[in-house]
Design goal:
Structural class: alpha+beta
Number of helices: 11
Largest sheet: 11 strands, mixed
Oligomer: single chain
Shape: globular
Mean pLDDT: 92
Low-confidence stretches: 1-20, 28-37
Helix content: 10-25%
Strand content: 15-25%
Radius of gyration: 22 Å
Length: 585
């Protein structure tokens, strides 16, 4: 179901705005893109060509403390957005080479930026390919974050994390397969769902799904952590006696910063590779053959990137997310047909949503607020508010779809303005004339937890609610499970093996977090931060524990179980079981 949406000027004709029932009101508060505030914050300064070509690109220092003043915030959303871009520039710069060129051996200093090359260098469409040699299975041209520790290196199945990450050769040990370092690649796409809720596809022909969606081009995922986080987990890891508490750095003994990166990659065609609009790389993915899990290698294109960074004064991580621009429409403005298959066919809400009513999401753009009505509880079909694609499709019993991915009006004026600022800087810099980075945009960012605005009309909206419903179109694609998410989600009765998703929109998801201001520790947060707030360790008998904001750390991984590599061709039974990895607590 689609309706018109009243949007602020410059964004109205630029952003895709298909969604459910909406109501929009202007805000009265000062714009988040007004002149920069008084607190010194170099990372929030205007992005210039010099930032794009700095050699090497510096990681921006942590922002100063936020003053929580809705009338006069000391740091604006635009400043935080510039900080997000500076992180992107740093982490997507080339990694430092170590001079090694041999099979199975890392050709880079993992986690370190190349002091002699800059962000412009990694934007070459053949960046990865030009770093290949006949002697090695690895390319010497890697992005800094690509060399971080994969989740299966952080928690190898059946063993402890090992070695110094800077010099560690990639070697992936899963429950169902061990990949030798001589067969490995730095990108290891071992996740085939959006946190167990759905799978997402591009149609392979036109904009209509294939009769069997599994024949279409899937998006696959991977999660990585920085050397600081890797080193901390390695230092406390004891599978026989897991720690009863932990706090990711910066903490009392380690003032380094934890960084986690979640990336989304699409299966590529020769035409997409040749377009020069994607950062591409060879990547591992997994297939089942004759009952055995097999590792394969293909070229994939980066379409989504979450960067999570925990810093002093920002104990819940700062969440920034970027997208490649062609996921919903092609360069010639045609619909891509991007869609999801949900691994459930029923949705229910908790008591915060009165029976028979549609819950709503209030989206604060910084220039106005828009109320968006979400689907009704019940079946995942058109009658309950989902954009189900008509036709006959092979969808397993208990699943639902295909459902067209929609882009609700979540964009903020600050992010839009800063993206334009960066685009202008690239346009005036010759090194970026053919750069793939021209085709990536900041989607939004979350810096500190807050409750949602209570209405579209209060005189003073909370500036922190800008990007309250932060989501990446290719990482969190299903309403209301993860795209317009707040609180928590779970499987209400896993023992019955039903296919129901329970959206707990009234659940406080920020718990036991140190160094937050008073009254900030029982919040019903939305978006990425709200979702990650449900990652808690250790949990008590009621299933509660402090929010550690990392789904990688739990009872099983801290006990040596590790992870299982998702196969591209998993059966419906295998896929449905995956829901329980994230939806029980």
């Amino acid at each position: 179901m689609k309706t018109g949406i009243i949007m602020f000027g410059a964004l109205a004709g630029t952003l895709a705005m298909s969604t459910s029932c909406t109501k929009t009101e202007p805000t009265v508060a000062a714009s988040s893109i007004s002149k920069d505030q008084k607190t010194p914050f170099p990372g929030g300064a205007e992005i210039t060509p010099a930032d794009l070509t700095a050699t090497p690109a510096a990681l921006p220092a942590a922002p100063p403390p936020y003053n929580y003043d809705p009338y006069n915030p000391n740091i604006t959303h635009a400043e935080y957005a510039r900080f997000a871009w500076r992180q992107f520039i740093h982490f997507n710069s080339p990694a430092q080479k170590n001079g090694v060129d041999a099979a199975g051996k890392s050709p880079v200093v993992r986690g370190s930026i190349d002091p002699s090359r800059n962000f412009a260098a990694s934007g070459a469409s053949d960046f990865y390919q030009s770093g290949r040699t006949a002697a090695s299975n690895f390319s010497g041209n890697q992005l800094v974050w690509e060399t971080f520790a994969h989740r299966s290196e952080l928690f190898p199945a059946g063993s402890a994390p090992k070695g110094n990450l800077a010099t560690l050769d990639p070697e992936y040990a899963f429950q169902n397969i061990k990949v030798a370092s001589t067969d490995a690649r730095f990108n290891n796409l071992d996740e085939n769902t959006q946190i167990g809720q759905n799978q997402i596809f591009f149609p392979k022909s036109g904009s209509t799904p294939s009769a069997n969606p599994q024949d279409d081009h899937i998006i696959l995922f991977q999660a990585k952590v920085s050397p600081v986080e890797y080193g901390y987990i390695k230092s406390i890891y004891n599978a026989n006696k897991p720690p009863t508490a932990l706090e990711l750095p910066p903490n009392g003994t380690d003032q380094g910063e934890s960084v986690e990166v979640k990336s989304a990659w699409r299966e590529m065609t020769p035409a997409l590779i040749a377009s020069g609009r994607y950062h591409t790389a060879e990547a591992l993915y997994y297939y089942q053959e004759n009952g055995q899990t097999q590792a394969r290698v293909a070229t994939f294109g980066l379409v989504g990137l979450h960067i999570l960074r925990k810093m002093e004064n920002y104990p819940t991580f700062v969440y920034t997310t970027f997208e490649q621009v062609d996921s919903l429409t092609t360069p010639d403005k045609k619909d891509t047909g991007l869609y999801v298959i949900n691994l459930y066919d029923q949705l229910q809400y908790d008591a915060s949503v009165p029976p028979g009513t549609r819950p709503s999401a209030i989206l604060n753009s910084g220039s106005n607020r828009t109320l968006v009505a979400l689907p009704l509880a019940g079946a995942i079909d058109s009658a309950h508010g989902y954009d189900v694609i008509p036709g006959k499709f092979t969808v397993p019993a208990g699943f639902s779809g295909p459902i067209k991915v929609q882009n609700p009006p979540v964009a903020t004026s600050a992010v839009y303005s800063v993206n334009a600022e960066v685009q202008q800087a690239m346009a005036s810099t010759p090194e970026f004339k053919n750069s793939v980075w021209q085709y990536y945009r900041l989607v939004g960012l979350q810096v500190l937890p807050t409750n949602e605005d209570s209405s579209v009309t209060p005189a003073t909206p909370n500036p922190l609610t800008q990007d309250y419903y932060l989501a990446n179109i290719v990482v969190e694609s299903s309403q209301p499970g993860i795209q317009l998410f707040k609180g928590g989600v779970k499987d209400p009765s896993p023992d019955k093996k039903e296919f129901t998703l329970l959206a707990k929109r009234g659940l406080p998801s920020i718990l036991g977090v140190k160094k937050l201001p008073p009254n900030s520790d029982q919040l019903v947060m939305g978006g990425c931060m709200g979702c990650h707030g449900n990652a808690q360790y250790p949990r008590d008998e009621e299933g509660k524990g402090p929010s550690i904001f990392s789904f990688l750390i739990n009872k099983d991984t801290m006990g040596g179980q590790g992870f299982s590599a998702d196969e591209r061709n998993e059966s419906p039974g295998q896929l449905s079981a995956k829901r329980l990895e994230y939806l029980t607590y």
